[in-house]
Amino acid sequence: MHRIKRLPLLMHSLKARLIISAMLLVLVLLPIVGVTLNDAFKLQVKSASVKELKAYVYSILAVTEVDNQQLLMPEVLLENQFNVIQSGLYALITVPVKPSAPLATDTTAAKLVENNAIESKAVENQPTTLVQQTNPSNNSARKVAWRSNSLLGIDLSAAITTAVHTAAMFPQPEKGQGQFSEIMLNGEPHLVYGFSASFETERLNKLGQPQLTRFPFTVYIIKDQSDYQLQVEAFNQQLWRWLLILMTALLSIQLLWLWWTLKPLTRLQRELTAIENGHAKQLDEHYPTELNAVAKQLNTLLITEQNQRKRYRNALADLAHSLKTPLAVIQSQKDLSPQSFEQVNQINRIIGHQLKRAQSAAGSAWHLGVAVVEVSDKLVRNLPKIYCQPRITITEDVDRNAVFKGDASDLTEILGNLLDNACKAANAQVLLQVKTEQAQLIITIEDDGMGIDEALHTQIFERGTRADTYQQGHGIGLAIVRDLVDSYQGQLTVSRSTALGGAKFQLIFAV
Questions:
Q1: pTM for this structure?
Q2: Does 484 have pLDDT greater than 80?
Q3: 509 vs 413, 436, 437, 484, 491, CA distance in Å?
């Protein structure tokens, strides 16, 4: 489930998209190239085999003779493989059977084959084999008129039967044409090339008129596919071995190229993170042309944001200083009624609260990070000096790498108010914990005081509402904290401390 959820997030990464695209290009394109080359090689080897079988056909035709409608073949052929029993190269000649002659038991056909065998001296002591062709273009039956010595001991009729059942039969091409096919012989695949020809002679008939006689026949060359398959397998092994090496090399080169190309983006991301964490003020402008303008604009934005925030705070400080003097003068009037004095105090509290809210940097266009330990260490060192009677001990458990994505003064205001209230309410101990878990900054402040009634957990964050027995301040500290936390889209909760027994304030911010 986690992998399924992370996949869409991964596709938002430009680096991940480029790497996946490069890998898909290599892993898909190269296998397609391999399959294409393999098919092309098979066609080439098969074409070479067809040419080789054609050459053997012509060598058979060169020594074939017909005398008085009788086929005459030499006892030994020039190609020695035709003379070696079961050599893997075979030759076969078939002739059509006259329709009037029976196919299997005709004694005349048997005598004709016997005469052919005697005259050719090539098929001595061999049984007659009849071939029934089912070619729609030529539905005539054929018989074996001659076979090479290499076919001795091979049951050709079984091969023909198997070929017929598998529709991969002996081809029967038209006269003057050749046809290529495949058959199973002795349980092994073989290539077959058939070529049809006809001897035509002109003789005088009984009436002394010239008469053309034809002797049609088909020559078959059969060759074992072992050589063909060995070539294909050797080529496949070599091809896929080198494609795998090429694939690995291309992936490595592409990954290195992508790493080198995206290195400026990685550096930009690293510098932006450093700025957010408060470790740097500006970006290094030594970037490629496409990113250099972006880096300059970001630096301009940073400088403008910082200067504007500084001017804004100075103006608010001046406003606060100018308002304090008239309010002090009004409060010093002796004839001021209690109701008027209370209203002046209310005005003073409202001005202080609103100035604190206005000075917050939570609404800034750029949130710079600040290390929490830099703010917490100062507060932990100084607050015990103020609350020395009774002596308050502040225990600090702070993650040194924790970063608050916001302004240092806002974090000081938040921690200062909460720690100050904890020191006022505590008997002797205050605990400050800061940790980072699951992309969240968690700050916890606990004390060993009386705690806060659960009914007041919501009211204490309102201006002027107090839940303590001490009288210092104006009662707006927690309201300021609440507004600051809300401005950073954080969470602020109050409960009872299980460790110290007093109040427990917990802050949660996204990092």
A1: 0.46
A2: yes
A3: 15, 10, 10, 11, 7
